[in-house]
Design brief:
By secondary structure, this protein is of the alpha+beta class. It folds into two domains: about 1-85, no CATH class; about 90-205, Cytidine Deaminase, domain 2, CATH 3.40.140.10. It contains nine helices and five strands, in the order αααααααββαβαββ. It is elongated, with a radius of gyration of 21 Å. The termini are far apart.
Length: about 210
């Protein structure tokens, strides 16, 4: 047991490019009780599933409460790091920039509808979650989107939502919501630059698809 944690710590220390296997990262987080069998079993779940596990679920895998809390905290820290990335990359020039700025959304297990409010130079003024849940016209009302755009004096907006299934293919409801927002943007005078759907390592721009 002690030898395994020593190997894991050594790997984390000597690989500056962070090319360390998940099982060894878990061993370092778990600490002295970590075994190869335990870490292999947890690593088999994969990053995404593991990142969504609760303390209680991890305890059922044989971890103590403190060990489970360390793993949950580690993934929370990673999510917050990804969220803060938007502050470093504030200028949006392409759908790829949008997908990079909100790439943390692919880890969410519920649909989130997010707006990026932009100035005249396509700098992000603010990122805001408008609602959480299945996308439909009753919850994504243009009023809720554009009242915040006006409040922040935004010149334009970009809407983003995720598909927890991992498949970013737009549904008919996605297309309907997009067209409704685009029509409202013309009336209000605040441009809807794009609506991006985030999947698992994939995204789709509804402007590139011709829906805006």
């Amino acid at each position: 047991m002690e030898k395994y944690i020593e190997v894991a710590r050594e790997r984390v220390s000597i690989y500056p490019d962070r090319s360390v296997e998940l099982k060894h990262l878990l061993a370092v987080l778990i600490g002295s009780r970590a075994t190869s069998e335990m870490c292999d079993r947890l690593a088999d779940y994969g990053y995404q599933y593991l990142s969504e596990m609760t303390v209680w679920e991890l305890e059922n895998e044989g971890l103590t409460e403190i060990e489970a809390q360390k793993i949950v905290a580690g993934f929370d820290l990673a999510r917050k790091m990804l969220e803060s990335h938007i502050e470093k990359q504030s200028v949006i020039r392409s759908p790829e920039d949008v997908a990079e700025a909100v790439k943390d959304m692919r880890f969410l297990n519920q649909e989130h509808f997010v707006c990026l409010f932009m100035d005249t130079k396509n700098n992000i003024i603010r990122k805001e979650t408008i609602f959480v849940g299945s996308l439909n016209t009753s919850v994504v009302h243009p009023r809720e989107v554009f009242k915040n755009a006006i409040r922040y004096s935004a010149a334009s907006i970009i809407c983003v939502h995720n598909h927890p299934s991992g498949d970013p293919t737009p549904s008919q409801e996605d297309i309907h919501v997009t067209k409704r927002l685009a029509d409202s943007s013309k009336l209000i005078g605040i441009q809807l630059l794009d609506h991006i759907i985030i999947g698992n390592r994939k995204f789709i721009s509804l402007r590139e698809k011709g829906y805006i």
